[in-house]
């Protein structure tokens, strides 16, 4: 509505001013029918828009009320906004007569979209944008209707500065993060450096490509500039959740509740907070509340599914995930969640389908690949499992588990060379991260490598591994035992072939194999 | 930015409790609708007014379908009632008019005047009667309505009533004549027609509506729960029993999408979607729908009156089992195996023997499909089914056991005994589907054994049987696989007798009943190709037969390969033919396909003949004979004997050949195809001639008695071949006849035959093949 104040006043506006002001008050009080009634005779563009918009919202409100009072379960999904058709007829008449301004065009577009006339809706939104480029609502509606980049390119949009915002928004939506970030950077340089909107969008973009630290930094900055902001805070809380930053999340949640506790974002943040504290019932409750506020809120459905999973309420979890998929078929987390649910129900073959779906949607996400691999392993399909693990490692394994699993698989299949190589890569991988992951099974890897080198008579390498084993509590005894064995063997063979042995070991080792000696540099 | 989200956030879902959206939040399936009010009005009129006895009878018959059927429009409803009793229809219309043109209080008044089932003790509306129960349901549902719902109901009643009058329908606007003079009509006939008519109305209703709705006409109401259920049940039934009566795949898909759009919780629609996708062999969509269905089912199972965790555990098992069957149908045996293992494991964990039993029968099916031995598994399955009292599965197992037994050459009387026993079981439990399968199976077994008369009889028995289904949606005969099989056998039997017109008629029928896109169409396609192929081969039109081979290979690889060898052999490309036959033999020995093995042996023997390797052919033929006898394949055994006799004739021992031939003569004349009869007679004549000392062009001494026999045989052979219009062979026969007559001194006869030969030879224009080097 803000846009109206910028428009020049003309004669008709002055005439309708009283009626408009009265109606606007009713409108603000959500008495839409009343507002529409008092605007009936007005002829100014402004009044006409408010008149139509009131009628539209009145229809929507009635539709929602109807759902409660439906006469049968099957009528539930079939309640329609009865006003839509009338509005469409009136607006299309005016549209052909070219009497619609930017706002009414926008409304016409919304009506068309609600009637599922998507193609027409796109055309009308484009028209609305051309008539009134600065109305962001029309851009947003349009963005919901664009499904791919080709479609985006084919639209003729006005060359206005706001188009850059739109393009950046679209790139984010279409998961073209690099382009989006470039656009936002350009906008910042063009003078929008203080815009909280842009900062938040960049943060969301980083979140989408899982650059958690960057995203967190940006959100923190955003909170400084705009402390009462609620938009996008659910994304922020997701990041905090992933990083297990309990105090920060708690602070955020309390802060948001103080600002407005009946917002979807707030509910999601609180849900995340409870989930992190392992109070899953409460978490589910808050996600439910979020859904009551907006049932099309996709993230909440999936998150609720996760909570039910934690509570071992599999059927409710399946339902929640299914709803998420219904809202958006491309929600890979929901597919993944469904897969997990069936995995918990011990149906590894059944869950394959879901994991495959998730993998299709995110081909370069290692988590799905690892899950697929695990399922295959359970079904004794080792070849497929190996492929999955290797691919998971190749696309950049997040949890660093793929190699370990691959190594163990090779170990089971008695493919000791491959197993050793995988363990080696695994150890390198772990150490190259710089930090010791808590659950890392470096000791297992070292133990196996020690034995492997020992069997292949590479005593130097074996002893090195054994020594390193001693750094870990669970492998200390074995490490020492191995060291003893090595020294025994060395004592036996020392005299005959001390220098003969070295070239032999070099030959034995395949070229691709990395010598363990360079592990030293990574010593924690 | 806010404006866009305003539209969405206004929406609020009241059905959601505890994060779960319930499809049926109150657990009531009955809701008052304008149609239901009309039915109530009808019931009310029936109890309150005086109606003549025949009319009352007709109305009584109407009550149940009206109560349980889907909602009808007022026009349809009034028409049905009118046909039974115009007077009541008028009264009902009047009452509805009172309500619709009056005020809300008129409707309220109507409900208050309804006879309460609790008070009316002697009337039909007593609380335990069907009518009483319906009334109680309706009253309860009505009383539960909130204020605004009552108002809404009244509005929709008005709409219901007025929309009937908005469009003028012929003859229904004017009030019907009150004088009913049809009471003298024959009662029984009326009752019959009424029943049928109601059925038809019901059938049309959902389809009609759907068509309108897809046109985007908003005035039509959506499907109610009952209507949707009815639609799904009907389509599922048709898919199973008579596929081409069901909606076309695309139309059905659209219909289902529509239904799901309005009611995403209607899980059964997903299942139907799965069935529909299976029809068009769409693995992607069918898997998707199947899993979606079970995702939904798991919920409703949990919600329902489940006993403990059994609620969704049960559906989990069946979900895995269904997935296995899906993969099995698409030929993904490894996947199917994995899914089945999973189902078995879950079923074992929860001690569900019934499910395990289902798994077991799938297991042996799978093994069978994979081509491995599964008799033991099947036997186990029969035992288990008997133990858990599952007649359906049990006799299905027995049937598949019989099939395996027949393939392995088990004693025929044992198989027939087993089938007879299951038959008793079927009739006892009226498992109509299995009765059909069993009949088709008997047909096939008789055909395999070479008893064409018995096969014919069984096939006719099946085809003349009318459907035994308790609820058949106007389908008088099912279009199941069993029928397709029986019809194919019938076609082949007719073709064997040279009745090609009848054969083509049968195929015409098959084409109508099982259009090419349906699942059982492959059966008749292959059968049709085989018959065409045989005809072309007999006519020596190899260039026409050759393209058929490719089509056959597409439908059945083994059969295609075998026929290919045939064509190659006929085109004198012996080396290629021989290598294919060898390949086939190895393959069939692996898959234990005895019939093809024997055929391959015979063809190989024929190849040996061409290189005059008659003595090498002998052991092969003896082996084939032993195999055929072991498996009781009479027709193949006779064919082998023919080959054997021919070989012996060529080896110069016609007496032996005659002896052997006598053995096969009887079964061939009794059961064989016309061509076989002709070949047998021709061979017999040649043997006789050889024994009689007849030599081509030679003028030795002739045994006249044997020669007379030969003349008879040749005449008979000629009649058989002319029936088939098999001119090549006929030419041979005439040649022999001419020679024989000449050596017997009957010159005029000889000349006549010679002329026939000459005419045919001119007509055929192809050089005669090396005389009599073939059977």
From TrEMBL, chain A:
Please give the PROSITE patterns that the UniProt record associates with this protein: TPR
What Pfam families does the annotation carry?
ANAPC8, TPR_11, TPR_8
Name the Gene3D superfamilies on file.
Answer: Tetratricopeptide repeat domain (1.25.40.10)
Q: Where are the TPR repeats?
A: 264-297, 298-331
Q: Transmembrane residues, as ranges?
A: none
- Ranges for domain Cdc23 come to 13-203
Q: Which UniProt keywords apply?
A: Cell cycle, Cell division, Mitosis, Repeat, TPR repeat, Ubl conjugation pathway
Record keyword Cell membrane present? no
Q: Which PANTHER family match?
A: CELL DIVISION CYCLE 16,23,27, CELL DIVISION CYCLE PROTEIN 23 HOMOLOG
Name this polypeptide is given: Anaphase-promoting complex subunit 23
Source species of the chain: Characodon lateralis
| Primary gene name | CDC23
Automatic annotation (TrEMBL), chain B:
Q: Which UniProt keywords apply?
A: Cell cycle, Cell division, Cytoplasm, Cytoskeleton, Mitosis, Nucleus, Phosphoprotein, Repeat, TPR repeat, Ubl conjugation pathway
Which Pfam families would you find in this protein's record? ANAPC5, Apc5_N
Q: Where is the signal peptide?
A: none
The Anaphase-promoting complex subunit 5 N-terminal domain covers which part of the protein?
32-164
Record domain Anaphase-promoting complex subunit: where: 270-369, 608-665
> Annotated pathway, please?
Protein modification; protein ubiquitination
Where is the protein localized? Cytoplasm, Cytoskeleton, Spindle; Nucleus
Function field: Component of the anaphase promoting complex/cyclosome (APC/C), a cell cycle-regulated E3 ubiquitin ligase that controls progression through mitosis and the G1 phase of the cell cycle. The APC/C complex acts by mediating ubiquitination and subsequent degradation of target proteins: it mainly mediates the formation of 'Lys-11'-linked polyubiquitin chains and, to a lower extent, the formation of 'Lys-48'- and 'Lys-63'-linked polyubiquitin chains. The APC/C complex catalyzes assembly of branched 'Lys-11'-/'Lys-48'-linked branched ubiquitin chains on target proteins.
According to UniProt, the name of this protein is Anaphase-promoting complex subunit 5
Q: What organism does the record attribute this protein to?
A: Characodon lateralis
């Amino acid at each position: 509505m803000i846009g109206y104040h910028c428009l020049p006043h003309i004669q008709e506006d002055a005439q309708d001013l009283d009626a408009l002001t009265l109606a606007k008050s009713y409108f603000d009080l959500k008495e839409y029918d009343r507002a529409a009634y008092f605007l009936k005779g007005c002829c100014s563009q402004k009044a006409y828009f408010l008149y139509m918009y009131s009628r539209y919202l009145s229809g929507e409100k009635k539709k929602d009320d109807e759902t409660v009072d439906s006469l049968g379960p099957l009528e539930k999904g079939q309640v329609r906004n009865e006003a839509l058709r009338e509005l469409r007829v009136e607006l299309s008449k005016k549209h052909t007569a070219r009497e619609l301004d930017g706002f009414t065009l926008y409304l016409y577009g919304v009506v068309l979209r609600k009637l599922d006339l998507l193609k027409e809706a796109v055309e009308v939104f484009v028209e609305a944008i051309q008539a009134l480029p600065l109305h962001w609502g029309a851009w947003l509606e349009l963005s919901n209707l664009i499904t791919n980049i080709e479609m985006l390119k084919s639209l003729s949009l006005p060359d206005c500065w706001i188009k850059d915002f739109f393009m950046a928004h679209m790139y984010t939506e279409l998961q073209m993060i690099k382009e989006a970030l470039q656009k936002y950077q350009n906008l910042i340089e063009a003078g929008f450096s203080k815009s909280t909107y842009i900062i938040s969008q960049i943060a969301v973009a980083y979140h989408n490509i899982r650059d958690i630290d960057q995203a967190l930094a940006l959100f923190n900055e955003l909170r400084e500039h705009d402390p009462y902001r609620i938009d996008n805070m659910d994304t922020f809380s997701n990041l905090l959740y992933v990083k297990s930053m309990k105090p920060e999340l708690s602070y955020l949640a309390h802060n948001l509740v103080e600002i407005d506790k009946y917002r979807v974002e707030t509910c999601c943040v609180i849900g995340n907070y409870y989930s992190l504290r392992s109070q899953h019932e409460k978490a589910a409750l808050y996600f439910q509340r979020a859904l009551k506020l907006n049932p099309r809120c996709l993230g909440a459905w999936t998150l609720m599914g996760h909570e039910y999973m934690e509570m071992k309420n599999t059927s409710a979890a399946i339902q929640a995930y299914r709803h998420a998929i219904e809202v958006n078929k491309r929600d890979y987390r929901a597919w993944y969640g469904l897969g997990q649910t069936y995995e918990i129900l011990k149906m590894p073959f059944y869950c394959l389908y879901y994991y495959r779906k998730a993998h299709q949607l995110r081909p370069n996400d290692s988590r799905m690949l690892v899950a697929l691999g695990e399922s295959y392993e359970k079904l004794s399909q080792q070849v497929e499992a190996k492929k999955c693990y290797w691919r998971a490692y190749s696309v950049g394994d997040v949890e660093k588990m793929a190699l370990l699993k691959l190594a163990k698989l090779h170990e089971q299949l008695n493919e000791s060379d491959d197993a050793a190589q995988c363990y080696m890569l695994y150890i390198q991988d772990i150490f190259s991260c710089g930090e010791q992951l808590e659950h890392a099974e470096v000791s297992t890897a070292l133990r196996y490598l020690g034995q492997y080198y020992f069997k292949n008579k590479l005593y130097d390498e074996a002893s090195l591994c054994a020594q390193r084993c001693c750094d870990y509590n669970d492998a200390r005894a074995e490490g020492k035992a191995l060291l003893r064995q090595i020294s025994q063997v060395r004592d036996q063979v020392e005299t005959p072939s001390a220098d003969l042995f070295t070239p032999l070991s070099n030959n034995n080792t395949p070229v691709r194999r990395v010598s363990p000696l360079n592990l030293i540099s990574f010593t924690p | 930015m806010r404006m866009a989200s305003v539209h969405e956030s206004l929406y609020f879902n009241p059905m959601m409790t505890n994060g779960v959206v319930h499809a049926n939040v109150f657990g009531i399936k009955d809701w008052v609708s304008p149609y239901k009010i009309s039915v109530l009005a009808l019931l009310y009129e029936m109890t309150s007014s005086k109606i003549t006895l025949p009319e009352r009878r007709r109305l009584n018959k109407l009550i149940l379908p009206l109560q349980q059927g889907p909602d009808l429009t007022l026009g349809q409803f009034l028409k049905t009632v009118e046909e039974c009793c115009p007077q009541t229809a008028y009264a009902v219309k009047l009452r509805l008019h009172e309500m619709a043109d009056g005020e809300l209080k008129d409707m309220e008044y109507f409900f208050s005047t309804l006879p309460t089932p609790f008070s009316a003790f002697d009337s039909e509306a007593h609380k335990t009667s069907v009518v009483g129960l319906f009334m109680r349901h309706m009253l309860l549902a009505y009383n539960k309505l909130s204020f605004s719902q009552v108002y809404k109901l009244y509005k929709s009643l008005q709409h219901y009533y007025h929309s009937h009058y908005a469009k003028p329908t012929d003859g229904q606007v004017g009030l019907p004549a009150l004088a009913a003079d049809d009471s003298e009509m024959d009662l029984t006939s009326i009752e019959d027609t009424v029943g049928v008519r109601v059925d038809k109305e019901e059938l049309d209703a959902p389809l009609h509506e759907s068509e309108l709705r897809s046109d985007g006409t908003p005035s039509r109401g959506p499907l109610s729960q009952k209507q949707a259920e009815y639609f799904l049940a009907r389509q599922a039934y048709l898919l199973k029993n008579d596929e081409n009566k069901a909606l076309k795949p695309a139309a059905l898909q659209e219909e289902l999408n529509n239904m799901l759009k309005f009611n995403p919780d209607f899980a059964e629609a997903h299942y139907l979607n799965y069935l529909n996708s299976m029809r068009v062999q769409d693995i992607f969509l069918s898997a998707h729908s199947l899993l979606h269905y079970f995702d939904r089912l798991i919920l409703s199972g949990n919600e329902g009156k489940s006993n403990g965790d059994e609620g969704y555990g049960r559906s989990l098992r069946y979900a895995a089992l269904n997935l296995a069957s899906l993969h099995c149908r698409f030929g993904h045996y490894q996947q199917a195996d994995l899914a089945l293992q999973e189902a078995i494991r879950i079923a074992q964990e929860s001690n569900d023997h019934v499910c395990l039993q289902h798994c077991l029968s799938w297991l042996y099916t799978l093994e069978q499909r994979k081509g491995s031995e599964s008799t033991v598994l099947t036997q186990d399955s029969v035992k288990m089914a008997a133990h858990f009292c599952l007649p359906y599965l049990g006799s299905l197992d027995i049937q598949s056991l019989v099939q395996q037994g027949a393939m392995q050459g088990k004693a025929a009387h044992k198989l027939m005994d087993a089938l007879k026993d299951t038959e008793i079981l079927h009739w006892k439990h009226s498992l109509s589907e299995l009765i059909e399968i069993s009949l088709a199976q008997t047909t096939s077994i008789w055909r395999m054994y070479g008893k064409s008369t018995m096969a014919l009889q069984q096939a006719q028995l099946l085809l003349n049987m009318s459907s035994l289904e308790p609820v058949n949606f106007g389908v008088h005969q099912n279009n199941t696989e069993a029928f397709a099989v029986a019809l194919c056998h019938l076609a082949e039997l007719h073709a064997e007798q040279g009745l090609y017109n009848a054969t083509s008629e049968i195929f015409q029928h098959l084409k109508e009943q099982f259009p090419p896109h349906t699942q059982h169409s492959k059966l008749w396609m292959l059968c049709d190709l085989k018959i065409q192929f045989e005809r072309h081969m007999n006519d020596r039109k190899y260039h026409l037969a050759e393209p058929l081979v490719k089509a056959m290979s597409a439908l059945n690889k083994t059969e295609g390969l075998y026929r290919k060898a045939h064509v190659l052999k006929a085109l004198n490309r012996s080396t290629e033919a021989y290598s294919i036959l060898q390949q086939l033999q190895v393959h069939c020995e692996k898959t234990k396909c005895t019939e093809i093995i024997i055929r391959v042996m015979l063809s190989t023997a024929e190849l040996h003949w061409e290189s005059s390797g008659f003595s090498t052919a002998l052991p092969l033929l003896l082996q084939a004979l032993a195999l055929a006898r072991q498996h009781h394949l009479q027709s193949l055994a006779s064919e082998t004997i023919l080959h054997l006799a021919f070989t012996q004739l060529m080896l110069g021992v016609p007496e032996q050949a005659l002896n052997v031939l006598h053995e096969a003569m009887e079964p061939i004349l009794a059961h064989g195809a016309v061509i076989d009869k002709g070949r047998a007679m021709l061979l017999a004549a040649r043997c006789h001639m050889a024994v009689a000392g007849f030599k081509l062009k030679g003028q030795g001494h002739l045994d006249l008695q044997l020669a007379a026999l030969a003349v008879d045989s040749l005449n008979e052979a000629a009649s058989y071949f002319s029936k088939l219009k098999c001119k090549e062979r006929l030419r041979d026969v005439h040649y022999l006849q001419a020679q024989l007559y000449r050596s017997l001194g009957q010159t005029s006869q000889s000349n006549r035959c010679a002329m026939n030969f000459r005419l045919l030879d001119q007509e055929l224009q192809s050089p005669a093949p090396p005389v009599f080097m073939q059977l």
